[in-house]
Each structure stands twice: as C-alpha cells, then as structure tokens.
Design brief:
alpha/beta; TIM Barrel; 8 strands; Aldolase_TIM; ThiamineP_synth_sf; ThiamineP_synth_TenI; Thiamine phosphate synthase
C-alpha cells in the first residue's frame, strides 16, 4: 500500500533474554528501523547495562517503553507510550510512538511518529490473544501512521501490505526462535519478503 519501504520494528520480550544485546545488534545491522526495549520489570540499572552493551552508533534506533530517566544519559531514538507509561516525561521533545488496540484510538494519535495497532493476526507471544480486526475494518482505516503488530511473520507481510499500514512490528516470531542461529534465519526470512 505504501510507496516507500515499510518500517520494520522489533520489540523485545517483557523478560530479558540471555545475550539480548547480540539480538538487538543483529536486528539493527540487518536494517530494521527500530528495536523497542520493553522490560517492565527490569531495574534502571539493568536497562542501562543493556543499552551500554549495544554500540553507541545504534542507540538512535532504540526506543524505550519505560525507564524514561535514561533519556538523559543516552541519545536514543525515542519513547513508546503504553498503558503502563501513558505520558511522555515533562519537557521531552523527542520522537514518540504509542500502543493502540482499537482503530479509533489509533486515529486519535495521528501526531505521533507512529502507533502500533494490535492484534492484527493471532499473537505468537501471547497465546489466546486473537486478531481483533476484520479485513473491512483494516481496509477502511483512516489512520496513516499505523504499524501492524500481533502475529506478524514473513508469510503475512503480503497481507499487511493490503492495508494502509506504514510498517510492521515483530516480537514473538523473532524472539521465540530458540537459538541465535534460528533467530538469524528468521531475520533472513523477513529480508526475503522485500
């Protein structure tokens, strides 16, 4: 649907994985636009250590889902608002994105860099979290800054392209891969959809 390449975003699982910085670096070096660091239970110290383990040249492509105090320490790509952290810090003027679970909600946030709309397909990372939208609803969507989230796999990119999404976000398909080798193979599968 878009004239330019779709935005590609990876979202880390809520619980950090071993050597997560290696996964984040692999994603960004593969050309993905952003990686969202989503660790609601992590301490600020743990988040700081994760960011420090990622080369500084990639920091501007990291978005935080919390721990916004780290914005003062690193040149990050922005913040992502959600039900846990619904407001940007006072005086923050960087890039902002937001989680949305309804089309009318997504349409209210047209001033954001983008919004993630979910679940578009049945979720991989949250069993039982099923697709919330019909094909007709997605086709009629007026929101022009929405990113598809929920059950996105390489085989579903063509379906995402049928709707007015500017990109897609992936969590379960990448991070439930089991090994770094399988993870790299799954990254390669997304590249083959271009």
């Amino acid at each position: 649907m878009a004239d330019k390449p779709m935005m590609k975003i990876a979202i880390t699982p809520p619980v950090p994985i071993v050597d997560e910085h290696e996964y984040v670096v692999a994603i960004l070096e593969d050309g993905w636009d952003y990686v969202h660091l989503r660790h609601p239970s992590a301490t600020t110290h743990d988040m700081r250590r994760l960011i420090e383990a990622i080369p500084q040249r990639l920091h501007n492509r990291l978005k935080l889902h919390g721990h916004f105090e780290l914005l003062n320490e690193f040149n990050l790509g922005g913040i992502h608002l959600n039900s846990r952290c619904p407001e940007a810090p006072r005086l923050y003027s960087g890039k902002i994105s937001r989680t949305c679970h309804a089309i009318d909600e997504a349409e209210r946030f047209g001033d954001m860099e983008y919004v993630t709309l979910s679940p578009i397909f049945d979720s991989i990372s949250k069993p039982g979290y099923t697709s919330a939208f019909s094909s007709d609803q997605l086709s009629a969507m007026k929101c022009r800054n929405a990113v598809a989230l929920g059950g996105v796999t390489p085989s579903r990119i063509d379906a995402v392209n049928r709707y007015p999404f500017i990109g897609y976000a992936v969590l379960g398909y990448l991070f439930n891969s089991g090994s770094i080798d399988e993870f790299r193979q799954r990254l390669k599968e997304f590249k083959q959809t271009l």
